[in-house]
Amino acid sequence: MVKVAVLCGALLALSACTSKSATDTSTDNESKQLQTLRIAAAANLSDVLPEVIDGYQIANQLSKDNIEVTYASSGKLYAQIIAGAPYDMFLSANQEFPAKLADKIPKDSTTHQPFTYTQGQLALYSVNKPLDGFSPKALSDMLLSDSSSKIAIASPELAPYGASAQSYLQAQKLYDPLVQQKRIIQAENIGQAFQYAYTGSVDYGFVAQSQIIAINAKPEQFITLAPESYPAILQDGIIISDKPATIDFTNYLRSAEGQRYFSQAGYLTVQ
C-alpha cells in the first residue's frame, strides 16, 4: 500500500509539473499576443523586416497583427521618438541615432543599450544606363563625363545610406563637381532614392543592396560597391519600452535564424 501511495503521489506531481509547464508556455504566448509591438524602422528595412517578422510570428505561434512597423528615414524617426511617439523599438540605419537616444534614456536599465543587428551594403543602380563591367575608376569617369545625367542619393543629414553615398563620392572626388553641376538629387530617404532610380526619373541612384535583391535586378542594372570604399553602414537598434515582447523580438532579430533573413536579403551578417 505504501508503494502504491508513493507511486500515485509521484504521478500526481509529474502531472502537476507538466500541467504547469504547459500553462506557463500558454501564458507566455498569450502575453506576447496581447502586447502590440510598435517598431520604428529605417526605410531600407522595408524589404527584409516583414520576412523577419513573419519568421518570428510563426516560431512563436503569434497572430499577424501583434507587430506594427513605421518606415521612414532614421533621422525622421529619431525626431518622432524625441517628440514622444509611442514606439517600443527603434531600428536605425546607422549607429548615431540610437546612441543619441540612449543618452536620453535612464541609465539604470541595461536593456536600453544600442545593439548592432546588421550591416548594410551600398549599390549604384540604373534602369537607363548599363553598369556591368565597370571598374571603380571607369565608373567615376563615367559619372563625371555623363554631364546630362542626374544622380539620386538619400539625404546625408537624415539617411545613413545617403551619408555613405556622399562619402563615397567625396572619396572619388566627384561630390563637389556633381553638386556644382546640379546633378545630385537628394531624396528624403533610401526608399525614395530607389524609387527615383527604379522609375527612371534619374539616371543613377545610390541605393541599398537589399533593394536590388528584392526586385531581382538584372546584373547590368547595378554595381555593388566595395564595402571598404565607403564608411561601414552598421545598423543599430535600441529598445525603448520594457515590454517583454520587445526583448524577445530583439533576441530573435540577432539570432542565427534572424541573421539568415538579412544575409539572404543582401546585408552582411553580424555576430
UniProtKB/TrEMBL annotation:
SUPFAM superfamilies: Periplasmic binding protein-like II. Keywords: Metal-binding, Molybdenum, Signal. GO terms for biological process: molybdate ion transport. Gene3D superfamilies: Periplasmic binding protein-like II (3.40.190.10). Residues 1-22 form the signal peptide. Molybdate binds at residues 74, 190. It holds the Pfam family SBP_bac_11. It comes from the Bacteria. One of its GO terms (molecular function) is metal ion binding. Belongs to the bacterial solute-binding protein ModA family. This is Molybdate ABC transporter substrate-binding protein. The gene is modA.
